[in-house]
Every structure is written in structure tokens, then in C-alpha cells.
């Protein structure tokens, strides 16, 4: 039996996972602090910088430059991640459980505790007394059950995983929720730290349009498209009114401009994802919460009938023809993050299993065999028009054409157009994308993107062998057992080649020293219930 007891974790600086060497800037860890050194750069998952401490100050507005504008704050209809509205939703709904980057454990947040039984096939959630939604109704066991069932019914990003593995949700009393699973699932607590753990009040669906009502430290105040979203502090939050009066989200499309605005002091936090900008923010000495996202920079291959990628020889030929170092030298100079491994050396999930090598001669052989069977060698590469995407597409085109492919570029003007072609219509051959397996509890995302029943496969090749390995990963108990399965997943990936891998993607929520009390959690999200602003 496992017990995750009730604890309140105030902000603690911490670093999890090993680092990977890069170039151009210099950092090392020293007791949870990242400091300048003469060595190459190191990217680490966790809190960056040492918080000076001090007595919390009440009041003020934290202005945060979001990565993308998210008008619909519904965890059942929006991917729950820091880059897609997760910070805002966590502020409104809170989360039942939280991943603590300092300890690497899942700990209670809105819930009081979580306990497993029957060989990890039953998990019992205990709720706190007196927790209320912003509309004044009680957050009890029935409310939790209703919200999660709504999440699954609406087909949210982890709904398929939940339906396949959770047999029943019982509510024996107002403060207890029992999850009965179809299989042992030691890492189940991570589910309650993400979308399913954001509990939505029934009143959110009472009107013609969804209205975000939760039990978090802040409540929705207003939204002006292309301008801002404002969240106001809640007096009725279970752990007391937050120190901040409000959180203001603004939308800055240019990552250079976002960092410059942060440097100027006009905003107090920014979500940064461009590898060069992340490097520059670390060089500037900003504190923050850093995630290294495995498979954050890939090109997905459409393996559905009628597309070149339906032939596994073509997929493997593409992979063998691509040299990630070339792409990163041109698109992200000085970051040193190129790797075609599923989990590169920085990751706690890194294994000795080798990815496919760069082997252009072998690529030519496989492509020639496919052409002998009627393939004409033509492929369309879809990507965006920003400089990094365009540079990546041009570099990939040159490498693929050097082994005999005929590549046409389709560079669309908006990310929305790209998402429609890849995720909705699946009318692409190869496309720049992010599969995004994050360090904290990657299983759910791996299921969604690689399992045959996953709902985020976007047309990539899925095989019974890979699905079986994903299911084996679900039941693996402990990091060592999970890592062993990860190695076999890498080996299977080398056969299936669902996507072309260029490297991980850093995700940094950066802030200056005067921002205190921020806590990191899963999916590159932060919690702001204890955040405060030191006086200048």
C-alpha cells in the first residue's frame, strides 16, 4: 500500500534529473542554485535560482507573457500544459495533486491525500473539509466524480487512457473518491496532477457558453482577445486568499520581444520555448522553472494509406537521412541540444538503447527498394513560416533530397492552419511538430501519442508491439523497471519510425528575483497560490 499524505509544500528550489552539456553559456547546480561557471551550458529540469526568502508581501499584479493565447479555459477541451493555458487553468481550478520537482514525488495540493491498495489497482482520494468552488458550492466527492466523467465524455487529451484503464469511480462518502483500475498502475497519481485533476464546477456548463468556475486561488475576471486575460484573487480559497491581487496574462507573439519585455521589468514572468531565447534568459540570470521536453522538436510522419509514410521503408529512409546536428546548427545555433534519442542524456529516462544512426547510404538503399515497388520519391514537408521552422524545413529538404527524395515545402502562415492539417484533417506527409514527452510522469502522453488507442497519434505509425510496450510501461513499478521498458520502446521506435527526431525542447517559465513563492508541477505548469512580489 502506498500513501501520499497531506502536506503543504511551500516553494522550494530544487533540481531533478541529470544534465546534458550544451554550448555558448555556462551554468552548474550548487545546492539547488544554477550559477555561472566556466563550463559548457547545462539544462536541468526543476526550479532555477535560489529564492532569497523574506516575508511575503500582499498585493500587486503579476503580469505573465503566455506562450499562446487560450480563450477557452476548459481542461476537457484544451491540452493541459504550460504552453496551452495550463498556468491559467491551474490558477482557476487548482489541481488535486502536484508533482514536486524538488523531491520528484506527487504530493497533495487541493486534495488531502491519496492511497493505493490491491497492488496499485485501487486508489483512494481523500478530500479536504470546507473546500468551495468560486460559485459557493462544495467541492465534494460527487463534484470530483462529475468533473472527471465530464472530462472523459468530452474526449480530452487523456480521455482514451482513462477509459481504457479506469473501470469505476466510486464515492462512498462526501470526502472519499475511490478509483478502481483495470490493471496495476503505480504512476496513476500523475493523472490527478493534470487535466483530470482540475475539477470544474457544474455551474460552468449552466449557460449557453462555458464559464470557468473552479476552486483555485484565482477566478476568471475578463478576457480581451489579442490583448489580455485577467484573473482576480479569491477570498474563499481553501488555503487563504493568495498574496497576489491578480494575475494578468498578455500575449507576445515574438519570443525575442517577450524576453526583452521581461528584461525591462514591464512584465514579471514569461513562458519561453525557443532554445536560443531560453539560453539567453538563463545567461541573463533569470530565475524560473525549466523543463526539457523529450520529442519536443520532431517531424511527424503520416503513415495512413495514400501517403509516402505508409511504407515503413520510406519512414526509415527519412530517419537515416537526417542529421539533427545540422538542423540545430542552422535553426538554433549555440544551444547544443541536437539528439535523435527519445530521451537524451539529460533525462532520468535515458537508456543505453541507441537510436537509429545517420546512415545516408542505407537510406538510399531503402528508398531505392520503395521506388522499385512504385513509389515516386515525392514527399511534402509541412511547417510554419517563422525563421526556425523555415530553416528546419530547408535543412531537412536538402538532406532528404541528397539521398533521392523529391521534397516540396508547404510553409503555412499560421499555427492554426498547421494544426488543422496535421491533427484534424491529417492531410500532410511530414510535418514539424511536438510530441512532447515531459520528464514528470511521461506515461500518459506516451499512451496518447504512441498507443494504437491513443487520441494524439495524428496519423503516425502505431503497431501492436509498441502498444504492448506502452501497456507494460503502465504497470512497471519504480524508475528502474520503467527505464528498462523505455529502452525497449526506443528499440521498437527504431523499427516503426513514427517520426523524425531532432532534439528536446526547453520550456522555461522565467521570472526576475522579485517574484517569489512560485511552485512547479507537471506539464511545464506553475502554481501561483503562494506567489508574491517583493518590493523593488
Structural class: alpha+beta
How far from one another are the termini? 49 Å
Q: Helix amount, in percent?
A: 25-40%
| Poorly predicted tracts of residues | 5-41
Number of helices: 13
**DSSP strand count:** 25
Principal-axes geometry comes out as: globular
Largest sheet: 12 strands, mixed
Oligomer: single chain
In short:
This protein is α+β, with helices and mostly antiparallel strands and 536 residues long. It has helices at 86-93, 141-153, 159-165, 255-264, 275-283, 312-321, 324-331, 360-372, 387-401, 415-424, 443-450, 464-475, 479-496; strands at 3-4, 15-21, 28-30, 33-35, 42-48, 61-66, 97-100, 105-108, 111-117, 122-127, 166-173, 176-181, 218-224, 228-233, 246-251, 269-272, 287-301, 378-384, 406-412, 430-433, 499-511, 515-516, 519-520, 526-527, 532-533. Strands 2, 5, 6, 13, 14, 15, 16, 17, 18, 19, 20 and 21 form a 12-stranded mixed beta sheet that branches. A 5-stranded antiparallel beta sheet has the order 1-9-10-12-11.
Index terms:
globular; five-stranded antiparallel beta sheet; twelve-stranded mixed beta sheet; alpha+beta; 13 helices; 536 residues
Walk me through the topology.
Elements: E1 3-4, E2 15-21, E3 28-30, E4 33-35, E5 42-48, E6 61-66, H1 86-93, E7 97-100, E8 105-108, E9 111-117, E10 122-127, H2 141-153, H3 159-165, E11 166-173, E12 176-181, E13 218-224, E14 228-233, E15 246-251, H4 255-264, E16 269-272, H5 275-283, E17 287-301, H6 312-321, H7 324-331, H8 360-372, E18 378-384, H9 387-401, E19 406-412, H10 415-424, E20 430-433, H11 443-450, H12 464-475, H13 479-496, E21 499-511, E22 515-516, E23 519-520, E24 526-527, E25 532-533
Parallel strand pairs: 6-15, 6-16, 18-19, 18-20
Antiparallel strand pairs: 1-9, 2-5, 3-4, 5-17, 7-8, 9-10, 10-12, 11-12, 13-14, 14-15, 16-21, 17-20, 17-21, 22-25, 23-24
Amino acid at each position: 500500500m502506498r500513501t501520499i499524505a497531506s502536506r503543504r509544500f511551500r516553494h522550494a528550489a530544487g533540481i531533478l534529473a541529470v544534465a546534458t552539456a550544451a554550448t555558448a553559456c555556462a551554468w552548474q547546480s550548487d545546492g539547488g542554485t544554477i550559477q555561472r561557471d566556466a563550463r559548457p551550458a547545462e539544462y536541468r529540469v526543476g526550479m532555477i535560482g535560489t529564492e532569497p526568502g523574506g516575508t511575503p508581501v500582499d498585493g500587486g499584479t503579476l503580469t505573465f507573457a503566455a506562450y499562446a493565447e487560450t480563450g477557452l479555459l476548459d481542461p476537457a477541451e484544451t491540452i493541459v500544459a504550460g504552453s496551452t493555458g495550463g498556468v491559467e487553468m491551474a490558477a482557476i481550478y487548482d489541481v488535486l495533486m502536484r508533482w514536486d520537482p524538488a523531491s520528484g514525488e506527487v504530493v497533495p495540493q487541493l486534495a488531502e491525500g491519496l492511497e493505493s491498495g490491491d497492488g496499485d489497482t485501487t486508489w483512494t482520494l481523500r478530500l479536504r473539509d470546507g473546500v468551495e468552488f468560486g460559485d459557493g458550492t462544495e467541492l465534494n466527492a460527487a463534484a470530483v466524480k462529475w468533473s472527471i466523467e465530464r472530462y472523459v465524455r468530452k474526449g480530452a487529451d487523456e480521455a482514451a487512457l482513462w477509459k481504457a484503464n479506469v473501470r469505476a469511480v466510486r464515492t462512498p462518502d462526501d470526502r472519499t473518491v475511490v478509483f478502481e483500475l483495470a490493471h496495476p498502475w503505480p504512476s496513476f497519481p500523475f493523472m490527478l496532477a493534470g487535466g483530470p485533476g482540475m475539477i470544474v464546477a457544474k455551474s460552468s456548463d449552466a449557460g449557453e457558453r462555458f464559464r470557468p468556475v473552479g476552486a483555485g486561488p484565482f477566478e476568471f475576471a475578463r478576457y480581451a482577445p489579442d490583448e489580455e486575460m485577467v484573473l482576480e484573487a479569491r477570498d474563499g480559497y481553501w488555503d487563504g486568499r493568495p498574496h497576489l491581487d491578480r494575475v494578468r496574462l498578455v500575449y507576445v507573439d515574438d519570443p525575442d520581444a517577450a524576453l526583452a519585455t521581461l528584461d525591462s521589468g514591464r512584465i514579471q514572468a514569461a513562458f519561453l520555448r525557443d532554445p536560443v531565447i531560453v539560453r539567453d534568459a538563463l545567461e541573463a540570470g533569470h530565475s524560473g522553472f525549466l523543463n526539457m521536453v523529450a520529442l519536443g522538436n520532431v517531424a511527424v510522419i503520416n503513415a495512413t494509406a495514400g501517403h509516402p509514410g505508409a511504407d515503413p521503408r520510406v519512414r526509415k529512409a527519412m530517419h537515416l537521412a537526417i542529421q539533427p546536428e545540422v538542423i540545430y546548427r542552422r535553426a538554433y545555433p549555440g544551444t547544443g541540444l541536437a539528439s535523435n534519442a527519445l530521451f537524451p542524456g539529460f533525462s532520468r529516462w535515458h537508456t543505453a538503447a541507441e537510436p537509429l544512426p545517420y546512415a545516408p547510404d542505407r537510406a538510399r538503399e531503402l528508398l531505392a527498394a520503395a521506388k522499385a515497388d512504385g513509389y515516386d520519391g515525392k514527399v511534402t514537408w509541412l511547417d510554419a513560416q517563422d525563421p526556425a521552422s523555415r530553416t528546419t524545413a530547408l535543412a531537412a529538404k536538402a538532406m532528404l533530397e541528397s539521398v533521392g527524395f523529391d521534397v516540396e515545402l508547404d510553409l503555412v502562415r499560421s499555427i492554426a492552419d498547421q494544426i488543422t492539417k496535421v491533427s484534424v484533417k491529417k492531410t500532410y506527409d511530414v510535418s514539424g511538430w511536438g510530441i512532447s514527452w515531459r520528464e514528470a510522469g511521461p506515461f500518459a502522453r506516451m499512451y496518447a501519442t504512441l498507443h494504437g488507442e491513443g487520441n494524439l497519434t495524428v496519423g503516425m505509425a502505431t503497431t501492436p508491439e509498441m502498444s504492448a510496450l506502452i501497456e507494460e510501461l503502465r504497470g512497471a513499478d519504480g524508475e528502474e523497471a520503467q527505464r528498462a521498458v523505455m529502452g525497449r520502446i526506443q528499440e521498437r521506435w527504431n523499427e516503426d519510425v513514427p517520426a523524425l527526431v531532432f532534439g528536446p525542447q526547453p520550456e522555461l517559465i522565467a521570472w526576475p528575483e522579485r517574484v517569489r513563492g512560485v511552485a512547479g508541477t507537471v506539464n511545464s505548469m506553475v502554481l501561483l497560490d503562494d506567489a508574491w512580489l517583493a518590493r523593488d
